[in-house]
Amino acid sequence: MSFFVMAAKELRELWRSKKIVFVPLVFALLAVGQPAVYKMLPSLLQGASNLPPGAVIEIPVPSPGQVMGGVVGQLNQVAVLLLVLVAMGSIAGERASGVTATVLTKPVSRGGYLGAKALAFSALAVVSLGLAALLGGYYTGVLIGPVDWAAVLRGGLLYLPNLLLAVAVTLLFSAVLRGQVAAGGAALVTLIMLNTVPGLFGRLGREAFPGALTARATAAMAGAPLPAGALPHVVPLAVTLGLAALFLVVGWQVLKRQEI
Amino acid sequence: MPPIVACTDLKKRYGAVEALRGLTFSVAAGGCVGLLGPNGAGKTTTLRILTGLAPASGGRAEVAGQNPWRQRDPVRRRIGYLAQQPAFYNWMTGLEFLQFVAAFFGISGRAGRDRAESLLKRVGLWDARRRAIGGYSGGMKQRLGIAQALINQPEIVFLDEPISQLDPVGRHEVLELIAGLSAETTVFMSSHVLADVERVAGRVIIINAGRVALDSGMDELRRQHAAPVYEIEAQGAGVDLGAVLRALPYVAAVRREGPVWRVAVNDPAAARARLPRAVLDAGAELIHYGIKAPTLEDVFLKVVGEP
Questions:
Q1: Using N-to-C axis directions, what is the helix angle for B94-103 and B138-149, rounded to 10°?
Q2: What is the per-residue pLDDT across A28-48, written as a single tens digit (0 to 9) for each?
Q3: Which of A12, A138, B85, B144 has the maximal Cβ count within 10 Å?
Q4: Smallest CA–CA separation between B36 and chain A, in Å?
Q5: Which residues of B touch A5 (CB under 8 A)?
Q6: What are B75-94's pLDDT values in tens digits?
């Protein structure tokens, strides 16, 4: 019961604060920028250089799939940062303001309190990624060439768990740490480590952990098949979603024992 | 009838600091009880434990027969709480916030709106009900805080310093509200504005350094501490009148209010006979001398010692 009341409030807050508008907008701008840059790159280079008249710049025209793969690369840097920034104060900030004490002296389970926030920010991630994929795909189709929408869907679904993981890690640190900036910083460091450190530990680390999903999503967008002998997609998907769930459970347990 | 609040040897420790050192008291249902104490005495800590926001480090706390930390949900269904500095979602309107908290108690839809509206009228925020809380004044937030604490018609409402941050008009309004509340539910309020507690509470519990220093009904308190307070105004170059008065064996506490010294005594007969002479002997010139009934503040200072 309290979960649904909190979830409705979180979604309403996303709307009132316009986060549900500007976060998808930033995602969409990043996605749309990719085909536009690819399309205009030759003329940009031509205009920016002092080549003699008649010189020809030859840049191979990328495939629509490659452009969509580039969209994943663009999102991977800025989108995760944006989600962390948006979610880092959701518990730490409320606790600092004192509103947590007002809410948690009502019959609200701390699991419901955290779960509602996880649901709202996950919904924000889904909407933002969905809009980015749709607009990125549309403009790639207009500017570069026909897009394989099934590949876009596959790539999007492979990339989404990375965003859900970012939400879970940020909420964990927002629950654990007192300051929202500290929570955001700790979340970013943890996400960078989760994406890089396992790669140092052999094939399983490279293929099964969250970092693998970005590369797989890029390849899937480009329509490239899974290389022979590679672990199936379900492995990094399960590991990433499992880690996200684990971080939320740890956050819940911390919150449950925490003095407000 | 079992008490609505019972604390037995309640302890709370923050690292090396002992905030509560074995607090024991109980509160029967009904009326208004004031929890008094100097800053750092443990008032807010006590309320945080009783509302389930913090666990006790030792001893036992019970609200309506249940442990507020371990049985959070059933306890919270029966209590209301106003924090010392009430905070809200500032983007919500007053009406939205009350409907939001009502929904946690299963009061939603038309019933939730009706309940929210009746409380907004009661606390005098009807005209501001559609304004964002971020634009409310401190007094309005305090009143909204009281309204949200009453949303579930609680058996007991805990108010942490509900009047300390208000201007005189706001204080008067909120005190009227609290006085009305104590007729329908148990009010347990902490405060250091003693005169205000005196106006609404039927009983006071004074805590000092984490322990109960005094627990008494207000009438009983007045009877027990009926010894008058002596008011002295004097002048004399180089005379430290405070030190002179404190050194007298029949003086219990000394407090300065502007030019006037208020002297609580433990031997009224001795004080009456010797106090004016003691002032004059110290080399001061007596300007005013009077005997007054003690206020709660005088009793408080006598119980907790002088600051």
A1: 20
A2: 999 998 888 877 777 777 666
A3: B144
A4: 22
A5: 100, 103-104
A6: 999 999 999 889 999 999 99
- Which of A9, A91, A103, A106 would you mutate first to test chain B, the one with the most B CBs within 10 A? A106
Assess whether pLDDT exceeds 70 at residue A49. no
* A114 neighbors A255 (Cβ within 8 angstroms): yes
B279 vs B177: CA distance, rounded Å: 45
Let me know whether B207 and B248 are in one domain.
no
Question: Are B207 and B256 within one domain?
Answer: no
Name the residue among A131, A228, A211 with its Cα closest to residue A166.
Answer: A211
Whether residues B148 and B202 share a domain: the answer is: yes
Query: Based on the domain organization, do B45 and B139 belong to the same domain?
Result: yes
Q: Does A49 touch chain B (CB under 8 A)?
A: no
At residue A88, does pLDDT exceed 90? yes
> What are the backbone angles phi and psi of residue B160, rounded to the nearest 5°?
-100, 105
**Contact status of B88 with chain A (Cβ, < 8 Å):** yes
Q: How far is B37 from chain A (nearest CA, A)?
A: 22
> Which CATH number does the domain housing residue B95 bear?
3.40.50.300
C-beta separation of B27 from B33 below 8 A: yes
Put simply, whether B225 touches A (Cβ < 8 Å) is: no
State the Cα–Cα distance between residues A182 and A165, nearest whole angstrom.
Answer: 18
Number of structural domains in chain B: 2
Boundary-marking domain end, from B164, B187, B222 = B222
Same domain, residue pair B217 and B252: no
B54 and B174 together in one domain: yes
Q: Are residues B12 and B114 in the same domain?
A: yes
Are B103 and B85 members of one domain? Answer: yes
- Its pTM stands at 0.83
Question: What number is the average pLDDT over the span A68-93?
Answer: 90
Give A227: exposed, middle or buried? Use CB within 10 Å, 0-12, 13-18, 19+: exposed
Please check whether residue A102 touches B, CB under 8 A: yes
The CATH number linked to B243 is 3.30.70
Element (H, E) at A234: helix A234-257
What number is the ipTM of this complex?
0.86
Output phi, psi for B257, to 5 deg. -125, 95
User: Which residue, B187, B202, B222, sits at the end of a domain?
Assistant: B222
Which of B69, B89, B101 is most worth mutating to test chain A (most A CB atoms within 10 A of its CB)?
A: B89
What range does the domain containing B255 cover?
Answer: 225-304
| B55 close contact with A: CB closer than 8 A | yes
